[in-house]
Specification:
The protein is about 35% helix and about 15% strand. The chain has a two-stranded antiparallel sheet. By secondary structure, the protein is an alpha+beta fold. The chain has four helices and four strands; from the N terminus they run αβαββαβα. The protein has a domain of about 60 residues. The two termini are about 25 Å apart.
């Protein structure tokens, strides 16, 4: 996820603030995702009314709230736990 310069604007925003204030000030900014982009306001609206203490709170919410285009390959994980009957993958050193 790339914030296209909105991260600097969010850093300069005055905190504490609400999601409504962030959306009013920066909601039309776009967030670049793995497969497309999404408006910052659309991402924050998924969480309803919130209060953010600092820019890092906003960044955490954005990372948690991007749509499926932001996660790369859907339903894929190389971190699935092994079952009781499996020994698991062999460790590989890169």
């Amino acid at each position: 996820m790339r914030l296209n310069g909105v991260d600097d604007r969010l850093e300069r925003h005055q905190y504490p603030t609400t999601s409504e204030e962030i959306i009013a000030a920066h909601g039309n900014a776009t967030v670049e995702l793995a497969n497309g982009s999404e408006r910052l306001g659309d991402v924050l609206e998924r969480f309803g009314d919130q209060t953010f203490e600092d820019a890092e709170d906003v960044f955490t919410t954005l990372r948690a709230g991007v749509c499926h285009r932001g996660v790369g390959r859907r339903f894929y994980s190389d971190r699935d736990p092994t079952t009781d009957a499996e020994d698991g993958p062999s460790p590989v050193s890169f």
